[in-house]
Design brief:
Layout (H helix, E strand, L loop, with lengths): L1 H13 L34 E5 L3 H12 L3 E6 L11 E2 L1 H6 L9 E3 L1 E5 L5 E3 L10 E3 L2 H14 L3 E4 L1 E6 L8 E7 L2 E7 L1 E4 L6 H5 L7 E10 L2 H6 L3 E5 L10 E5 L4 E7 L6 H11 L1 H4 L3 E11 L7 E2 L2 E3 L1 H4 L10 H18 L9 H30 L3 H11 L2 H13 L7 H29 L1
Parallel strand pairs: 1-2, 1-12, 2-8, 5-14, 12-19
Antiparallel strand pairs: 3-7, 4-7, 5-6, 9-10, 10-11, 13-16, 13-17, 14-15, 15-16, 18-19
The structure holds flavin-adenine dinucleotide.
The site of flavin-adenine dinucleotide has 39 residues, from helix 2, strand 2, strand 3, strand 9 and strand 13.
Enzyme class: oxidoreductase
Pathway: Porphyrin-containing compound metabolism; chlorophyll biosynthesis; Cofactor biosynthesis; tocopherol biosynthesis
Function: Catalyzes the reduction of geranylgeranyl diphosphate to phytyl diphosphate, providing phytol for both tocopherol and chlorophyll synthesis.
């Protein structure tokens, strides 16, 4: 029954006009995107059809790459007017790589302050070169820009909530997307599906991609009096301590006319509001007189999903679980994974002319992604488990962050998404300092506990 319906829809959509090929408008195909001979069967009389579910950075970047590469692309977004709860910090390289105009950037952060549980403060911007900064954006602004660009590249934006995905049982039958748009239930048959629908991914559920553990992040947007806002002009703060999070950090990020104050935790989710209260206490004098204009919370994936590609469906961004531990960064990785997945489909389908297979998605997208980023995820995972374990290890982390070498290495890696060229002697010193700081702070921590007892 389901496959009959799918066949009907398939024929129905075959007669749809293809989206007109508009200029690429900002999207530049990467040099490595070469079209190679494929053994996949050609598609007759139409182009390959792809549904991208979710219009965040992952979905829009997927859709832009697909549409620019000749694939007939449908981008589903349930609420284009809303803003994803997010701190909105993005690395410098993203502006270039994704051609994000400077006018979208609210703040150029050049000072980062890390504050330890005992309020030891380290300024983290010493090694920044002129013109280097961390960009602060509002997600409603960034997301709507990226979605419009996907549309300009030829993707059809469908404002609708995807409620289900019928997975075909045969190799060439279509996937059927069920969605609600303008209060009516509709369906769309496609050849390929990309799940870019975030941490609660419907696509992941439909393809039985398995679960991952999630942190919960809570954030308040607070409008400050002018003189208080002045303090956060180009400054972002990270607070560490059991009072603000048992396993993550809390933050104050500056936005256009307000600050985002938030925190997150994996191991103690029911207490998230208590941690936010702890955070408000820590920043009390700096936000005095502020007015809360928005309160938001959202899950943050902790690890990649057990399955990220199945059949002709792939997951990208938060749906795939691509947020880094330690920093909780996900916007760049969402956009990057979306673009890589879109390009993989374009390449395997020879510009939308041929069918694609699971093996294509694995080879061209998954393996490439893992080869490029898996080690980064593992390293940050390790750092989080070493340094966010107790107040003593957090003190050690802040102490270490005072070192110029540590600052340069971590900022370069963050801002340019490449491992900064190190210096062997400095690496040895850094390792020795790490062990020294950890030991010293553990011993101090134990002494403090003993004194309290
Ligand atoms: C409080 C908080 C602060 C954060 N701060 C930062 C930060 O400062 N920097 C950083 O890099 N990362 C940050 N992150 C992580 C970052 O927000 C995510 O990694 C990023 O948004 C992932 O992008 P995405 O496109 O994969 O998913 P999302 O941004 O979640 O986008 C998914 C989209 O899919 C749509 N959608 C979902 N389900 C459906 C459906 N069934 N049908 C149709 N549409 C659907 C949603 O409306 C949404 O627009 C933060 C996260 C949180 C929660």
């Amino acid at each position: 029954m389901a496959s009959q319906a799918a066949h009907h829809l398939h024929s129905h959509f075959t007669s749809l006009p293809l989206p007109s090929r508009r200029p690429r408008n900002g999207y530049s195909a990467p040099r490595s995107l070469t079209v190679t001979a494929s053994k996949n069967p050609p598609i007759q009389g139409r182009k390959l059809r792809a549904a991208v579910v979710g219009g965040g950075p992952a979905g829009s970047s997927t859709a832009e790459a697909l549409a620019s590469g000749g694939v007939e692309t449908f981008l589903f977004e349930r609420s284009p007017a809303d803003a994803k709860p997010c701190g909105g910090a993005i690395p410098l390289c993203m502006l270039d790589e994704f051609r994000i105009p400077l006018r979208l950037v609210d703040r150029h952060v050049t000072e980062m302050r890390i504050i330890s549980p005992s309020n030891l403060t380290v300024d983290f911007g010493k090694t920044l070169q002129p013109g280097e900064f961390i960009a602060m954006v509002r997600r409603e602004v960034l997301d709507s820009f990226l979605r419009s660009r996907a549309e300009s590249a030829g993707a059809s934006l469908i404002t609708g909530l995807v409620t289900d995905l019928e997975v075909p049982t045969s190799g060439s039958a279509p996937y059927v997307v069920h969605y609600i748009s303008n209060s009516s239930r509709r369906t769309l048959a496609v050849d390929v599906v990309v799940g870019a629908d975030g941490a609660n991914s419907r696509v992941a559920k439909s393809i039985k991609a398995g679960d991952y553990s999630c942190a919960i992040a809570f954030q308040e947007r607070i409008r400050l009096p002018d003189e208080k806002m002045e303090y956060y002009q180009n400054l972002a703060e990270m607070y560490l301590g059991d009072d603000v999070s048992p396993d993550f950090y809390a933050w104050v990020f500056p936005k256009c006319d307000h600050v985002a104050v938030g925190t997150g935790t994996v191991c103690s989710k029911p207490d998230i509001k208590a941690f936010q209260r702890g955070m408000r206490e820590r920043v009390k004098p700096k936000i005095a007189g502020g007015k809360v204009i928005k309160v938001e919370a959202h899950p943050i994936p902790e690890h990649p999903r057990p399955v990220r590609v199945l059949g002709r469906a792939a997951l990208v961004g938060d749906a795939a679980g691509y947020v880094t531990k330690c920093s909780g960064e996900g916007i760049y990785f969402a956009a990057k994974s979306g673009r890589m997945c879109g390009e993989a489909i374009v390449k395997a389908s020879e510009g939308g002319m041929r069918a694609v297979t699971e093996e294509d998605l694995r080879r061209e997208y998954l393996r490439e992604w893992d080869a490029r980023y898996l080690s980064t995820y593992r390293l940050l995972d390790l750092l989080q488990s070493v340094f966010y374990r107790s107040n003593a290890t957090r003190e050690a982390l802040v102490e270490l962050c005072g070192g110029e070498y540590v600052q340069r290495m971590s900022l370069d890696s963050y801002m340019y998404k490449r491992l900064a060229a190190g210096n062997r002697w400095e690496d040895v010193k850094m390792a020795a300092n790490t062990v020294g700081s950890l030991l010293r702070c553990q011993i101090m921590g134990r002494r403090m506990e003993a004194l309290k007892a």
